[in-house]
């Protein structure tokens, strides 16, 4: 069973990341590449370091999700938040909550950053300071419908009529916007969910016919029942990468965050992080991505 589908979102639970190891162990083949990526960041905050509180919705593998065996949040955005905290000399505090609540926490000043696979939207640009973009594989570049194996033939690349079909999306997400603009106009009825895992359960039990997700999330959710369809959304370039949300009053913090993002991009860290998180989320294997059993990239 996928880590994503069995995860239970613990609202209000705060995780403080000091110099401890991330979830998993070196003996865990799912975590080995992730742990190497984490170690390479070199995060070791001072005991008296100021807290950097990051709100995120850990229901979105491989970006952020629970390792249920360890009850710890892992994923690309956790590595990114750790890297930013290290660059800023701060102590990272992860505050898990729903996707909508993550945005509200930044607006109200209860969190410094919201990092949860966010895309740029015009509405968010009016409400928040938005960071420069960061790149997490094809997570935002490709947006897709997932459905059940029994209904896959109903969702083809050229499908034009969605009359009578119920399409799910996470409330407040880019997927909600895409469904509204591209499928509701073709007859679909949209169902919104707070938690993407609840939406996946609704899909598996037949409450909805398909679910709009980022491609990487679709890979993580796929199993014997849920499959990737052949229907892809048209995605404008402005939506194709991820951003971090900050309070409108935090211009100085935004400048520091953007400097950290530029450094991570220049160092070529994003691909390594995304691949490690694909393995952790059981989307890909070490062998498929060209890693040895110790989590080292094979270069020869």
Summarize the structure.
The protein contains ten helices and 14 strands. It has 300 residues and is of the alpha/beta class. Helix 2 packs antiparallel against helix 10 and helix 3 crosses helix 9.
Q: What does the model show?
A:
This protein starts with a helix and ends in a 20-residue tail after the last helix. By secondary structure, the protein is an alpha/beta fold. The protein is built from ten helices and 14 strands. The strands form three sheets. The chain has a six-stranded mixed sheet with strand order 1-6-2-7-14-8, sandwiched between helices. Residues 1-12 have low confidence and may be disordered.
